Amino acid sequence: MSGVDFQQLVDRQYAPLYRFALSLAKSEADAADLTQQTFFLWASKGEQLRDSSKAKAWLFTTLYREFLNRHRHEVRFPKIELGDVHEEEMSISPNADTFDSATVLQALSEVEEPFRAPLTLFYLQQFTYHEIADVLDVPIGTVMSRLSRGKAQLRERLLSKEEVLGNKVIALQSDRREELHG
Amino acid sequence: MDSREAKFILNAYRAGGQDAADPRFAEALEQVRRDPILRRWFEGAVAFDAAITEKLCATPVPSDLRESILAGAKVSRAPSWKNRWRKWAIAAAVALSATLGVLIWHDARPAPVSGWQLQALDAILSSIARKESHFDLVSRNPADLVKWLRANDAPTGEKLPDSLDKLPSIACKTFFWHGKPVSLICFALPDGRAIHLVMTTASARSDLAIKHAAKAIQQSHWATATWREGDMVYMLALEGSRDELRRYLL
After folding, report:
1. ipTM score over 0.85, yes or no
2. For residue A105, which residues of chain B lie inside 8 Å, CB to CB?
3. The overall pTM is greater than 0.90
4. I need a surface site. Which of A38, A98, B33, B89 has the fewest CB within 10 A?
5. Mean pLDDT of the residues in chain B
6. Which fold has domain A1-76?
7. Residue B20 has what pLDDT?
């Protein structure tokens, strides 16, 4: 891959990679380092890939593995029985349009890690569920389970933020009313 | 397929419609067409997913990240380094062995890099070009690397040279030369190249002979400069000329 091709790859993928990293790492500095490290590894190893069409999957897979390696000793993944997943129905769905990017990202970062990675890859719309399974090295059924559970958790987190937002609005309105009448 | 199973599958269906042709979704989508309650759920789910995608893709990316990646990757690919460095390192090693195996620094003529300096250059090579080892820590913030080195009792000066302190860093690495710890920090230059700072304590006689004033030497395509401050010895190296290197010695 020439320098021009590499630059094109960076131009195409650095932003979604960074956003994926940000959802995992929760810190802008860590996300930037993870993204940079991934391209660094690509430059030193990834270019050996003969099939350039797999570059994108390689980058996301490598970033995810780098993240897991860094947090191997810091994070204990919760033991979750994914073989017996029941979809959590949400009768109320938050209005996602009312939130800004930062709030959505915050809610996403609060989703449990095993669900967060497939969910972010799904929402970045870079990959099919097949490809997500390849990137995360899990079966397709597990990806679907994690997407179902992850979306349920995300809705839950957004609903709780919607309630906080709603309470603030109510509080502000009542304060104003007191001011007007007081 | 009941509606519960259809929902389970459709949760993996991307709102942008890229998955419309996937046969795994066909039956579930057919179920959506037949079942008005399921259709309502699906429309809501697609709208929710589209909104989340829009918000997520609007998350700002650091403005300097692209340049930083390109600069760092250029160093790590270093196609021109790989062969030149190897040839040069081998030539340097041969030259060294020919000098009675003694590492001597002369004031009268440019001294070749040797000892821990050669080891440092090899560490750069092995981490970057030969891919035989990894950096210990990757960070764009030099302060992070210095902090990590200090926390791991690796040699670091009181402060980084002012000219380097303003550059984004790439990574750091530590190694031992004859039982003596040596630290290496790589920085990204604005033009995409890298500059490397090597630090160790002056213990050997050859180290103590190093002057306070930096001495720059040109060896093939590389320029290196070595100087001493108290009990610390520094070496700065870049692929370029001595004049270019001197800009970072101020």
Report:
1. no
2. 55-56, 59
3. no
4. B33
5. 74
6. Rna Polymerase Sigma Factor; Chain: A (1.10.1740)
7. 80
Residue A172 has pLDDT above 60, yes or no: no
Instruction: Look up tokens 């440019």; give the residue.
Output: B110
Chain B partners within 8 Å of A37 (Cβ): 138
| CATH number for the domain running over B65-246 | 3.30.200.100
Average pLDDT score over residue span A48-52:
66
Q: What is the pLDDT of residue B51?
A: 92
For chain A, the average pLDDT equals 76
Contact at CB, B62 and A39, closer than 8 angstroms: no
Position A50 scores a pLDDT of 59
Tokens 């998955």 correspond to what residue? Answer: B19
> Domain A84-182 - what CATH class?
mainly alpha
More confident residue, A42 or B179: A42
> Across the interface, do B19 and A45 touch by the CB < 8 Å criterion?
no
Rounded to whole angstroms, how far apart are CA atoms B237 and B85? 12
Domain boundaries, chain B: 3-57, 65-246
Surface of A (132-151) touching B: CB under 8 A = 143-145, 147-148, 151
Mutate to test the interface with B, among A17, A87, A103, A123 (most CBs of B within 10 A): A123
**Predicted local confidence at residue A121, as pLDDT:** 94
List A residues 150-169 in contact with B (Cβ-Cβ < 8 A).
151, 154-155
Question: Do the chains contact at A124 and B51, CB–CB below 8 Å?
Answer: no
Cβ-Cβ contacts under 8 Å for B233 (sequence gap 6 or more): B199, B200, B201, B202, B207, B210, B226, B227
> A70: which chain B residues are within 8 Å (Cβ-Cβ)?
none
Over chain A, what HEC string results? CCHHHHHHHHHHHHHHHHHHHHHHHCCHHHHHHHHHHHHHHHHHCHHHCCCHHHHHHHHHHHHHHHHHHHCCCCCCCCCCCHHHCCCCCCCCCCCHHHCCHHHHHHHHHHCCHHHHHHHHHHHCCCCCHHHHHHHHCCCHHHHHHHHHHHHHHHHHHHHHHHHHHHHHHHHHHHHHHHHHHC
